[in-house]
Amino acid sequence: MVGIPQRMKALNALLEEVICTKRKATIKSRIIMIMTVFALLIATLLSFFSYELISYFQKRTTIQATEFNLQLVSHIIEQDLLNLSVLAMTCSTNSSTNSMLKEYFKSRDRQPMEAINVFSSLQEEFRMNRSNGYVRRLIVTDNKDKFFQVDNSVSTSVPLSIHNINQLPGLSLDSREEWERVIKDPLSLTYTIPFIMPIYGDNANRIGTVYLLANTAVITDKLKGYGLPEDSKLLLTLGEHKYEIQGDKIVPISTPYKVTPYEQNITSGSVTSLSWLETEEGEKLISVAYPVRKGVTLSQTLSEKQFAPQFNIWLLLMLGVCVLVITSSGFITLYLTKTISLPVEKLKKRIDKIAQGNFLIDRNMEWNSELGDVGRGINRLSQDIVALMETRVADEKQRQELEYRMLQSQINPHFLYNTLNSIKWMATIQNATGIAEMTTSLSRLLRSIAKDMRRLVPLQEELSLLDDYFLIQKYRYGSNITMETLTYDEQLLTGLIPRFTLQPLLENAIFHGIEPKGRGHIVLSIQRSGLNDILITLEDNGVGISEEQIAGIFACQEPSSKGLLEGMGLRSVHERLRLAFGEQYGLSIDSKEGQYTKMFILLPYRKTESSSVL
Hints:
Elements: H1 4-19, H2 21-24, H3 27-92, H4 96-106, H5 112-128, E1 135-141, E2 147-151, E3 177-178, E4 183-184, E5 191-200, E6 206-215, H6 217-220, E7 234-238, E8 241-246, E9 249-252, E10 258-261, E11 273-278, E12 284-293, E13 296-303, H7 308-355, H8 370-409, H9 413-429, H10 433-451, E14 456-458, H11 459-477, E15 481-487, E16 496-498, H12 502-514, E17 520-529, E18 533-540, H13 547-553, H14 570-581, E19 586-592, E20 596-604
Helix pairs in contact: 1-7, 1-8, 3-7, 4-5, 7-8, 9-10, 10-11
């Protein structure tokens, strides 16, 4: 059975639990809110990072797919342009056709058969070329009055003559051009790309020009099946000229784009280049460019809007995850309400009944869970409170009986003080001053023991009680004992010391030091130790104490005191000092057998019990 104080503490704790129930009732809602916010935060972060990661890979995949498509188309276009370049260079470099052209251009006496042979050779080279279908016209001229032409669409063109040949753009004595622009054929409605090569004679002198106009279909035909997204554009760079490919047309770009480098290198090809193209309206496009050949580059733009639909999908997904988390939180709330909130509410009501005085046992609260353990603890607490109340009633009856018996045997302290006072005055009348002084000292000692309930007293009062005690012992031993008190700092007498600390030291010096020797002298000195401590030394010149006896005093082997205060020995003084002021304070003894014994008391200088060390 636990004691009354422990049961009262348990009852107080139970009442505090009842008071704090409303405040603690929000724990479940806080937990649910924290779980929900945490889950929403995690879902949002996962959705964000997933969106960023997949957007990156989607952009990378789109750019690499565009690069692959451009690379495939560019290789096909390059092959046709290469074939056409070879056709033009066949007429301008060492070949049978070139030799025949040189001879014809140098000949002054031109025979019709020579012209026919040259034209036939030129037509043969034309027919053998795999890309001849894209040649709008092939002209070989000496830039004077002689020329040959192979025309793929004679019926849709104005006949070429010495009078209109000068209308062809770029056809001059010093012209040279390789797929650098798109021009309109002045003799037809066809848009073409010129390829112009010089013809050199034996002395490296230019004697003529090969003028080839390739139909723009050489590029646009390859792009008819090209899968171009809605917001994308196909751009073509010919030399320094920029064009946009619109179906089967190549349209010049009137306002050039502002080109800036692309920050991320996510292409796989070494010749592919990425850049940002910014329009006048501020729209930024990603340009994926692949070189067809020197001076010819095909590129495709990609708009950031192409990736916006993916963001919408992830936004919907994130909203769906949030709805799922909130729904899950609702189910968790219902589960916690069933498994925690309702049992806690029952426990709260049970505690309220206990606070109102209903201590009946309720076995319905003893569930098979942790809350059931709490319910069993509340039932045990109810039983303990009932037992506590019964025990307190029995203790109260027993206390009343003891008080009645004590009243029967109690001696009134005033009667004892008055009696001692009467003895004092009788001794004074009879001129027995020793009896009067001894009676007065004894009266003061008894009054201090019976009425003074202070734990700590000023050192001055402790010295006064010590003087009363020594006076009684002086009359007992006569002039065989003497005592001297030395105070080096009067301010120290205001410091506090536990009651009856010095009396056991003086009693021990008289009974165990001086009495076995027959006579002796005691010196009590009070001085400052350090800045804030008091050192009290009581020295006698008695028989001394051995090291074993000193060790026994502090090892619970000290014999019980039989003096004024029974059981108040040196070890008790040491323990009371340590409890009052701390482990660093207390009693210490230094002695030499046959010569002296010194007892030292170290305590802090304090004026009030609650003050800190000064």
